[in-house]
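Note to self: keep these together.
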Amino acid sequence: MSYSGLLERIKTRNVKVGVIGLGYVGLPLALEFTNKGMHVIGFDIDPKKAEILLQGKSYIKHISADRIRAAVDEKLFDATADFSRLPEVDAILICVPTPLDHHREPDVSYIEKSGEAIAKYLRKDQLVVLESSTYPGTTDEILLPMFEECPLTQAAAKKDTKTQPKKFVVGEDFYLAFSPEREDPNNPDFSTATIPKVVGGVTPKCLELAKVLYDQVIVKTVTVSSTRAAEATKLLENIYRSINIALVNELKMVFDRMDIDVWEVIEAAKTKPFGYNAFYPGPGLGGHCIPIDPFYLTWKAREYEINTKFIELAGEINTYQPYYVVQRTMEFLNSAASKAMKGAKILILGAAYKKNIDDMRESPSLKLIEIFQERGAKVDYNDPYIPNLPPTRKYKFEMKSVPLTEKNLKKYDAVVVSTDHSDYDYSFILKHSNLVVDTRNALKYVKKNSKKVITA
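Structure:
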């Protein structure tokens, strides 16, 4: 099959797509392709995920089992931990995590391992697209050399008169592009298919194939000049948010000291019809992008002898927020209940990083639990979406969500609202709690100047 043959197969949706990484990004993307009648094989290193999906079940709350079951029953979706099946697909989309290590430097090991698996089985005329958020240069510097070192298939190698097998050439034998994921789990206004997709290719042919592939399932595809420009686009989006959130977090601390309600100020500022976009404070940054992506550029910028002062300052402010919440809680306990933090009973409401989802990635709630425990408090949590706290890369809490009953609420010295789930009955919580520390302004309609509530 030639370039033109692959392009035609994509245009007619007679193409098989492989998605590596069946998490919050990869799984919804895979289902969008099946919605358009294309065959998808999902690859994940965790065989349990494949087993669950093939049973037509979901392990992500906002992705319904019905969608998965329909795709499986129609034989449009398969899932496996067997990467030797990669030659079966025409396009491979890499949707794996890119965390930070303990030194806040990029951990691209998941990309590297995915690349190694692809390189082992890469066949002629396959398109590979990296979607993982990363620093500019990752696609060209890590994946491209791996794939260019792949020999052609054995059949092609036998026809070669040279003693050494011919190597793959990008844009001729295989195609490589970058398209940053823009997933926002459980966003009521935008889904995978309705969020425009940025695409950059290593060569013009790579770009064209990737664009046409995404055109089949995404409302709009925006092309840029290179993979590096596409990688930088994702970083800009999240650095913009990180810096603005840091600004309101800093103002929150200043206004708290001045006895000014930062939430009231933000609502007033929002009335200006131009020149202002509202951002909101919180207990810290969470999710798979904003707490991580800015530091990818900070790390890469050192290679060019540039200090990213804005990014690093925003990171310091946002990282401090869980400590600020604990400090405010400690002061509130002391002033309102003459209670020390050591030995105090604290209930954290919400373990997810944002409301109405079961996604715990980089959740500030986990940091809050750690800090409260370090200060000697006895900590429990409640989250209607997360019945147990599973182990993460950073934390190994063995905790179960406690029921939100009148009796339970009364036994805690303070309740800290970390995630403002819509499921919570905030009137009930306020009524039966001794003290409430509200980090999300969740009680704005029920607190009525109650002395039992402070914001943090």
